[in-house]
Amino acid sequence: MKFLSExxxxxxxxxxxxxxxxxxxxxxxxxxxxxxxxxxxxxxxILEMLPANITMxxxxxxxxxxxxxxxIDEAIFLAEQPNVILCSFGDMxxxxxxxxxxxxxxxxxxxxxxLYSPLEAVQLAKQNPDKQVVFFAVGFETTAPANALSVVQAxxxxxxxxxxxxxxxxxxxxMEAILSDKENKIDAFLAAGxxxxxxxxxxxxxxxxxxxxxxxVTGFEPVDLLQGILMAVHQLENGECKVxxxxxxxxxxxxxxxxxxTIKDVFTVSDRIWRGLGNIPQSGYEVNExxxxxxARLKFNIDxxxxxxxxxxxxGDIMKGLKKPKQCPNFGTKCKPEHPLGAPxxxxxxxxxxxxHYSNTDSVLV
Amino acid sequence: xxxxxxxxxxxxxxxxxxxxxxxxxxxxxxxxQVNLCMVPEAQVGDYVLVHVGVxxxxxxxxxxxxxxxxxxxxxxxxxxxxxx
Lengths: 366, 84
Hints:
- The complex is a heterodimer.
- By secondary structure, chain A is an alpha/beta fold.
- Chain A has helices spanning 10-23, 35-43, 46-49, 63-66, 69-79, 102-107, 118-127, 144-156, 171-179, 193-199, 205-211, 222-237, 257-266, 296-299, 315-319, 351-358; strands at 28-34, 54-61, 84-88, 112-114, 132-139, 162-169, 188-192, 215-218, 243-245, 267-274, 278-287.
- A six-stranded mixed β-sheet of chain A has the order 4-3-5-6-11-10, with helices on both faces. A five-stranded parallel β-sheet of chain A has the order 2-1-7-8-9.
């Protein structure tokens, strides 16, 4: 556990903690959505400082963790086509597919490049007119504008050798899927600040109302998280279910309208299979009809059977808040960051990897 | 990879067309070319939140510095380093 003096704003951390302890009278379970928030909560030892009555569970907000086995298989299929350069964010390379990972495909000779931005992939396509360049476009609403913009740029540059494998996921439908699960234990959500920087907060009002669930848009630093937790607990103790914005210094209610327009220009909302959660209707983005020439699934006629997930990985129960990483029999034994059975052990934003690296807590669900 | 990182816009490098408006952004000394089409109001000297090569909002200087130093402590700015 950290000493208070190690935090950037120790007085604020102390004040929020005292207030959370003071007002908490009942057991509550809160879920943070974003993997960056999970990483921060665990690495900064915040879980151990909360009242015993407050249980934090860690939601599906890490694109590395929720991209399905079948989509990884699609990316590997593309990477193994002749004359293709597959570009990806680095975090995706170690995620296991049904037979292998992208890293293993790369080791076997596939041309797979790790890029910082999809816009670099557009430049790569321009520089390599005799190659087909495919960008593996994963991510939540935060990443969708950049991936959409890459398609707009490639279209304006009349590049016929650029396409994307879209595997976008959306936060509000996932929250609804979790809240409508018959075993749901979540009393309140901390929504992801940067997702809302793009999308604004209006789409959360119907969710809060329908499920009587407080939703607090929250940042990812310790003081942000503690303030978000305090705001959520305050609502719960008072029987309220409002949408509140803890992260107003970055999140405007309407979001970034130009970013939203870019998303709408290129993508259409589609069903999406999430690793661990299964198919969630209308929970993803796919390239729309207007830009279909930039859809790698159509360009390469991908037709890969839907793969089964590794049954030894309990990531679905973890991302629904039903289990904690250390309740998995394979945690730290058969499943480690070097040899992940499932995606939450791969990236530092995955709940299992965060617990593996930083946490001494043995807390389990009450 | 899902967090946005604040940096200072030090130069506009291309503005032929809104879609390609690009600037050089300093992340505490690491420079990246960043697309600016979603923050048309951003000018040289402003701080912007950048996610995978695209600026998604302006942010004030004090907040930018605080957040950057926090992200650095957390190991979240490694994606900015070349040739990872």
